[in-house]
Predict the structure.
Amino acid sequence: MAYRFDTFAMFFSESLSFFALFYLWSSIYRQGGQIGNYSFPDIVLYYFAANFIALVIKGTDVAWNVGDEIRLGKIVGVMLRPISYSKYKFFQVMGSYFFRGISYFALFALVGAFLFPYLGFVLDPWRAFFSLALMGLGGILYFLIFYIVGLTTFWLGLVRGFNFGFMMLVIFLEGGLVPLDLLPSAITKINDFLPFKHIMFVPISVFTGRMDADIWLFLVPAIWIAVFYFFAKFIFKKGIKAYEGFGI
Amino acid sequence: MKGLAYKLKKYFGIMLYMQKIDLMNRMAYRINFFISVLTVALQMVFSLVFISVLFSSNRTVAGWGFYEAVLVVGSYMLIEGLMWASCAYLNALNKNIKDGTLDGIILRPVDTQFLISVWRGDMEDLARVVSGIGVISFALIHLDFAAGQLFLNLFLYLILIFCAFIITYSVNVFLRSVTFWTIQGDALFHISMAITRITQYPSDIFFNKAARFATTFVVPIAFMATIPAKILAHGFDWKLASLAVLMAAIFFFSSRWFFHFALKHYESGSS
């Protein structure tokens, strides 16, 4: 509640983007065009779900936050606490996911109640629950990726450019800009070997019924999470050895 | 007149000095700087892929052909690059208000709005200007022009780009000034980004009257990239051009008034 203005403003900014995309795709479909195997309701539903995910997991700039704590020496104060830095950051970010998840879920449920009948979409509670669970894994994956990006401050000194670059890459490869199955096949083939689609595209595809709610869908993001977890540990260990505590 | 010339020279000198210091700061983190430049190029590629997907089934979107739409994307990149290369410090206004560091800026014998705008510029955004020019050139090569016509269009385009810059700057001043009341303001950055991002789509996509009115007169997204691109692609339209100049003037002076009005509500956090 202390940050209710920022929460509202974030929602407003995502709504603006959503309405612009709504008009953009409307003008394509009004001319009778069809992009891939997406009908107009499919594409609106896709961006609706994408906006929800973006609002919940992207409200905290993890890399910038971690980078700032390293750059300004604040990390030393955190390390003196009886909790590891990675755990501290993890629970801090998960807390903010949870708060935003609850707030935006209520808002999106309200909008969805009006929007879904208009789009001819029937919500399957099991699919919704399944995709929420996948979204949770995607959120952890997103956190770990940007936590590692933040840790590069140990060597780079400033993480701004690297963070922004990675953000662009992730938005594109997770399906935040355009559904991944509409991209050229060369890109989708490469992307199949990367973790990013599990942040947004896979949970949305399950939610919209384009992908089966198969329990195996948890396996790949879980493996990526394990890989990134150990990599983050390794990077932190190396980084803290190289750290000179500048800014203190 | 002499006084105005002296003032302009003084402010231009301050701006150059600020940019020089900022560039020196940036060079302290060289790797970060060069990664930022690469990122800008990456963003350009993604924008073009997105446009290609949109045009994969239609020859036109809202009356715009592919290369005309690429002109809009190029203009958006140009404006965004110019905006943040020169006035990136606007992004720090909420931090200055929250930390009370705005006190130090207000006390200086230079216009406060000028200082909170140009104190820092993101030099890596000049790469966006260069990529924007590249994208525009790419589109122009594929559009048919007589040489004389192209030069005339380019001349008018530059005037409209200047107006678009003023409008983009003014919209940002309006938005950031809200921080004087809310103190929180991190998310205002996202609103500003969302507005700027929308300008990369031709504003003719807003087909209903209310949306078109809002994107022309309330938040004049149409003037921020679409109208300059339209003039460049289709030639001079005096109605559009004069409206762009008028909108730039209205937005500049009203945002300036609003900033000073908001400044009166500043309660120094540090004192």
